[in-house]
């Protein structure tokens, strides 16, 4: 379904430059929002549709770059927490504001992280398949044995992580009896360290010492392919790896090798390259690789409530942004 109406627009505070966004919400019914339809359409069609529009509302599956931003949009919004598909450089050049949906997914993302870790550690999908084909046969004490979260060491890679996601993930995993949390971020996170507690470590140490590694970072030049052969080679052969951030954070060929050689125990992926992953992709052949079709954002909370604000200052290259614009969109 296509969101057809903005029923309520609530504004909190004003920042320099926010006037363009204000204009958008006040007159949203009158503006030409030609590209508001969410279903994906071919790039050529998108480029045709953006000509002469003032607002663009799209999904994370589309690259919003110079070609798209050629038209003088007042604002671009993406229905996603990540905005790695949007060229911030180009936005700055044209003075275009960016809306995205921070915080909306924090809980859902943490829940999916738990689901991925349990699905891989308990070999849930494989077990379901076996049950369907009567694969369990007679009782075998070692069959389908997995590694539990209880007493484990959990590494959380949250480099550039936003909106306390890293802490929320740890909070969700704590009740499972995780013994120790290790984390990586751009800087130590004292609030999280105190709340969990958790230890700030270098990547190598996290790779070496963790029983589980879960990735929840933003895609940035610093995190691109950070999970590569060097990291996988330091992991234990009992370690389970999971990623629900962005596919490009992982070197997928290296992950394939790590699974094929038995260098790691299993992987759970909600994101990959490309998306959708072709059904004949070699990763699908592993029983110990759980692949989900990027469903972190499949939660009603994100559909009915979008919190639009500008990306963090650092990524916005010095632009000072303080307040939020909140738009409720009902389908
Ligand atoms: O991955 C989901 C999102 O960025 O919203």
UniProtKB/TrEMBL annotation:
An annotated Gene Ontology molecular function: glyoxylate reductase (NADPH) activity
Domain D-isomer specific 2-hydroxyacid dehydrogenase NAD-binding: 114-295
Gene3D superfamilies: NAD(P)-binding Rossmann-like Domain
SUPFAM superfamilies: Formate/glycerate dehydrogenase catalytic domain-like (SSF52283), NAD(P)-binding Rossmann-fold domains (SSF51735)
Record carries keyword S-adenosyl-L-methionine: no
InterPro entries recorded: D-isomer_2-hydroxyacid_DH, D-isomer_DH_NAD-bd, NAD(P)-bd_dom_sf
Keyword Membrane: no
Domain of life: Eukaryota
Protein name from the UniProt record: Glyoxylate reductase/hydroxypyruvate reductase
Annotated source species: Dromaius novaehollandiae (Emu)
